[in-house]
Amino acid sequence: MTNKTLDLSVYFIAGPQNFSECSLDGATQKIALIIKSGVTVYQFRDKGTIYKEQKQRLSIAQKLQKVSEEAGVSFIVNDDVELARELNADGIHIGQTDESVSKVREKVGQEMWLGLSVTMADELKTAQSSGADYLGIGPIYPTNSKNDAAKPIGIKDLRLMLLENQLPIVGIGGITQDSLTELSAIGLDGLAVISLLTEAENPKKVAQMIRQKITKNG
Protein backbone atom coordinates (compact mmCIF):
# COMPACT_ATOMS: atom_id res chain seq x y z
CA MET A 1 0.00 0.00 0.00
CA THR A 2 1.13 3.55 -0.62
CA ASN A 3 2.20 5.78 2.25
CA LYS A 4 -0.45 8.38 1.34
CA THR A 5 -2.75 9.36 4.17
CA LEU A 6 -6.42 8.70 3.55
CA ASP A 7 -7.99 12.08 2.80
CA LEU A 8 -11.71 11.32 2.52
CA SER A 9 -12.88 14.85 1.73
CA VAL A 10 -13.73 14.39 -1.98
CA TYR A 11 -14.59 10.73 -2.45
CA PHE A 12 -15.46 9.90 -6.07
CA ILE A 13 -17.28 6.67 -6.95
CA ALA A 14 -17.81 5.50 -10.53
CA GLY A 15 -17.43 2.82 -13.15
CA PRO A 16 -18.06 2.61 -16.91
CA GLN A 17 -21.79 2.14 -16.24
CA ASN A 18 -21.95 5.78 -15.14
CA PHE A 19 -21.14 6.82 -18.71
CA SER A 20 -23.40 4.35 -20.48
CA GLU A 21 -23.56 6.53 -23.58
CA CYS A 22 -19.83 5.96 -24.13
CA SER A 23 -17.72 3.02 -25.18
CA LEU A 24 -15.73 1.36 -22.40
CA ASP A 25 -12.63 3.26 -23.50
CA GLY A 26 -14.57 6.52 -23.65
CA ALA A 27 -16.04 5.96 -20.19
CA THR A 28 -12.61 5.15 -18.81
CA GLN A 29 -11.23 8.41 -20.23
CA LYS A 30 -14.06 10.41 -18.66
CA ILE A 31 -13.51 8.80 -15.27
CA ALA A 32 -9.77 9.45 -15.57
CA LEU A 33 -10.41 13.15 -16.20
CA ILE A 34 -12.52 13.39 -13.05
CA ILE A 35 -9.90 11.54 -10.99
CA LYS A 36 -7.44 14.25 -12.08
CA SER A 37 -9.86 17.06 -11.26
CA GLY A 38 -9.01 17.32 -7.58
CA VAL A 39 -10.74 14.39 -5.89
CA THR A 40 -8.95 12.75 -2.96
CA VAL A 41 -10.29 9.19 -3.24
CA TYR A 42 -11.51 7.18 -6.22
CA GLN A 43 -13.58 4.03 -5.71
CA PHE A 44 -13.77 1.68 -8.68
CA ARG A 45 -17.40 0.53 -8.61
CA ASP A 46 -18.44 -1.10 -11.89
CA LYS A 47 -21.73 -2.79 -10.99
CA GLY A 48 -23.86 -2.95 -14.11
CA THR A 49 -20.93 -2.77 -16.53
CA ILE A 50 -20.93 -5.42 -19.25
CA TYR A 51 -17.50 -6.64 -20.32
CA LYS A 52 -16.74 -8.88 -23.28
CA GLU A 53 -14.22 -10.75 -21.16
CA GLN A 54 -12.86 -10.65 -17.62
CA LYS A 55 -9.42 -9.39 -18.59
CA GLN A 56 -11.07 -6.28 -20.03
CA ARG A 57 -12.32 -5.41 -16.55
CA LEU A 58 -8.85 -5.90 -15.06
CA SER A 59 -7.31 -3.73 -17.77
CA ILE A 60 -9.71 -0.84 -17.11
CA ALA A 61 -9.18 -1.09 -13.35
CA GLN A 62 -5.41 -1.05 -13.87
CA LYS A 63 -5.63 2.04 -16.08
CA LEU A 64 -7.73 3.91 -13.52
CA GLN A 65 -5.44 2.80 -10.72
CA LYS A 66 -2.45 4.20 -12.59
CA VAL A 67 -4.24 7.51 -13.15
CA SER A 68 -5.09 7.63 -9.46
CA GLU A 69 -1.50 6.96 -8.43
CA GLU A 70 -0.19 9.66 -10.75
CA ALA A 71 -2.74 12.13 -9.38
CA GLY A 72 -2.00 11.27 -5.74
CA VAL A 73 -5.52 9.91 -5.31
CA SER A 74 -6.24 6.88 -3.10
CA PHE A 75 -7.57 3.96 -5.16
CA ILE A 76 -10.32 1.87 -3.54
CA VAL A 77 -12.05 -1.19 -4.98
CA ASN A 78 -15.75 -1.74 -4.29
CA ASP A 79 -16.72 -5.18 -2.93
CA ASP A 80 -14.30 -7.31 -4.95
CA VAL A 81 -11.65 -8.50 -2.51
CA GLU A 82 -9.82 -10.61 -5.09
CA LEU A 83 -9.54 -7.68 -7.49
CA ALA A 84 -8.31 -5.43 -4.70
CA ARG A 85 -5.63 -7.99 -3.84
CA GLU A 86 -4.62 -8.53 -7.46
CA LEU A 87 -4.19 -4.79 -7.96
CA ASN A 88 -2.65 -4.24 -4.54
CA ALA A 89 -5.18 -1.43 -4.20
CA ASP A 90 -4.98 1.19 -1.49
CA GLY A 91 -8.25 -0.09 -0.08
CA ILE A 92 -11.41 -2.15 -0.30
CA HIS A 93 -14.94 -0.97 0.47
CA ILE A 94 -17.67 -3.42 1.46
CA GLY A 95 -21.37 -3.34 2.31
CA GLN A 96 -23.48 -4.89 5.03
CA THR A 97 -24.38 -7.91 2.88
CA ASP A 98 -20.79 -8.71 1.92
CA GLU A 99 -18.35 -10.78 3.97
CA SER A 100 -17.69 -9.53 7.49
CA VAL A 101 -15.01 -6.93 8.11
CA SER A 102 -12.96 -9.49 10.06
CA LYS A 103 -13.01 -12.01 7.20
CA VAL A 104 -12.12 -9.39 4.62
CA ARG A 105 -9.33 -8.13 6.87
CA GLU A 106 -7.88 -11.64 7.01
CA LYS A 107 -7.73 -11.64 3.22
CA VAL A 108 -6.35 -8.15 2.60
CA GLY A 109 -4.15 -7.74 5.68
CA GLN A 110 -3.52 -4.63 7.75
CA GLU A 111 -1.89 -2.60 4.99
CA MET A 112 -5.06 -2.07 2.97
CA TRP A 113 -7.70 0.43 4.06
CA LEU A 114 -11.06 -1.16 4.70
CA GLY A 115 -14.26 0.85 4.38
CA LEU A 116 -17.74 -0.24 5.43
CA SER A 117 -21.16 1.10 4.43
CA VAL A 118 -23.76 1.78 7.12
CA THR A 119 -27.36 2.82 6.61
CA MET A 120 -28.86 2.96 10.10
CA ALA A 121 -28.03 3.60 13.75
CA ASP A 122 -27.58 -0.06 14.73
CA GLU A 123 -25.14 -0.67 11.88
CA LEU A 124 -23.19 2.46 12.79
CA LYS A 125 -22.93 1.37 16.42
CA THR A 126 -21.76 -2.14 15.52
CA ALA A 127 -19.27 -0.75 13.00
CA GLN A 128 -17.37 1.14 15.71
CA SER A 129 -15.70 -2.05 16.90
CA SER A 130 -15.73 -3.89 13.56
CA GLY A 131 -12.14 -3.11 12.61
CA ALA A 132 -13.14 -0.92 9.65
CA ASP A 133 -10.84 2.04 8.95
CA TYR A 134 -13.61 4.34 7.80
CA LEU A 135 -17.36 4.30 7.19
CA GLY A 136 -19.64 5.41 4.40
CA ILE A 137 -23.04 6.53 5.70
CA GLY A 138 -26.16 6.92 3.59
CA PRO A 139 -28.11 7.41 1.57
CA ILE A 140 -28.57 10.82 3.15
CA TYR A 141 -31.00 12.01 0.48
CA PRO A 142 -33.04 10.11 -2.13
CA THR A 143 -30.77 8.81 -4.88
CA ASN A 144 -31.04 7.22 -8.31
CA SER A 145 -27.41 6.04 -8.39
CA LYS A 146 -28.20 2.69 -6.74
CA ASN A 147 -31.24 0.56 -7.55
CA ASP A 148 -31.05 -1.14 -4.15
CA ALA A 149 -30.49 2.00 -2.09
CA ALA A 150 -31.87 2.00 1.44
CA LYS A 151 -34.36 4.53 2.77
CA PRO A 152 -32.82 8.03 2.99
CA ILE A 153 -31.57 8.93 6.48
CA GLY A 154 -32.19 12.68 6.32
CA ILE A 155 -30.12 15.40 7.98
CA LYS A 156 -31.91 15.36 11.34
CA ASP A 157 -31.34 11.63 11.95
CA LEU A 158 -27.84 11.81 10.48
CA ARG A 159 -26.85 14.41 13.08
CA LEU A 160 -28.05 12.11 15.86
CA MET A 161 -26.29 9.07 14.38
CA LEU A 162 -22.99 10.92 14.11
CA LEU A 163 -23.01 11.56 17.85
CA GLU A 164 -22.32 7.83 18.27
CA ASN A 165 -19.49 7.74 15.73
CA GLN A 166 -15.75 7.80 16.43
CA LEU A 167 -14.45 6.66 13.03
CA PRO A 168 -13.59 8.66 9.91
CA ILE A 169 -16.83 8.86 7.94
CA VAL A 170 -18.10 10.02 4.55
CA GLY A 171 -21.67 10.85 3.64
CA ILE A 172 -23.22 9.52 0.46
CA GLY A 173 -26.50 9.54 -1.43
CA GLY A 174 -28.32 12.23 -3.39
CA ILE A 175 -25.73 14.93 -2.66
CA THR A 176 -26.09 18.08 -4.77
CA GLN A 177 -24.33 21.43 -4.85
CA ASP A 178 -27.29 22.90 -2.97
CA SER A 179 -26.81 20.48 -0.07
CA LEU A 180 -23.06 21.02 0.39
CA THR A 181 -23.38 23.83 2.93
CA GLU A 182 -25.87 21.86 5.03
CA LEU A 183 -23.68 18.77 4.95
CA SER A 184 -20.46 20.61 5.71
CA ALA A 185 -21.74 21.69 9.12
CA ILE A 186 -22.44 18.27 10.66
CA GLY A 187 -19.00 16.76 11.19
CA LEU A 188 -18.44 14.49 8.20
CA ASP A 189 -14.87 13.82 7.08
CA GLY A 190 -15.85 13.79 3.44
CA LEU A 191 -18.57 13.43 0.85
CA ALA A 192 -18.85 10.48 -1.52
CA VAL A 193 -20.42 11.43 -4.83
CA ILE A 194 -21.23 9.89 -8.16
CA SER A 195 -23.54 11.99 -10.33
CA LEU A 196 -22.44 15.30 -8.82
CA LEU A 197 -19.11 14.74 -10.57
CA THR A 198 -20.04 12.49 -13.52
CA GLU A 199 -22.68 14.98 -14.68
CA ALA A 200 -20.68 18.11 -13.91
CA GLU A 201 -19.70 20.45 -16.75
CA ASN A 202 -16.66 21.45 -14.69
CA PRO A 203 -15.65 18.59 -12.34
CA LYS A 204 -12.60 20.52 -11.11
CA LYS A 205 -14.80 23.37 -9.87
CA VAL A 206 -17.19 20.94 -8.14
CA ALA A 207 -14.36 18.97 -6.50
CA GLN A 208 -12.82 22.21 -5.27
CA MET A 209 -16.17 23.32 -3.89
CA ILE A 210 -16.64 20.06 -1.95
CA ARG A 211 -13.11 20.21 -0.56
CA GLN A 212 -13.45 23.83 0.55
CA LYS A 213 -16.75 23.14 2.32
CA ILE A 214 -15.50 20.03 4.12
CA THR A 215 -12.08 21.34 5.16
CA LYS A 216 -13.50 24.69 6.26
CA ASN A 217 -15.86 23.02 8.70
CA GLY A 218 -13.88 19.86 9.40
Protein described:
It is a single chain. The chain has 218 residues and is of the alpha/beta class. 39% of the residues lie in helices and 17% in strands. It has 9 helices and 8 strands. An 8-stranded parallel barrel has the order 1-2-3-4-5-6-7-8, surrounded by 6 helices. Helix 1 packs parallel to helix 2. The longest helix is centred in the N-terminal third of the chain and has 18 residues. The two termini are 26 Å apart. Keywords: Magnesium, Metal-binding, Thiamine biosynthesis, Transferase. Its cofactor is Mg(2+).
Helix content: 25-40%
Mean pLDDT: 93
Please compute the radius of gyration using only Cα atoms.
Answer: 16 Å
What's the number of extended β-strand segments? 8
Distance between the termini: 26 Å
Q: Structural class, from helix and strand content? A: alpha/beta
Q: Name the helix and strand elements from N-terminus to C-terminus, one letter apiece.
A: EHEHEHEHEHEHEHEHH
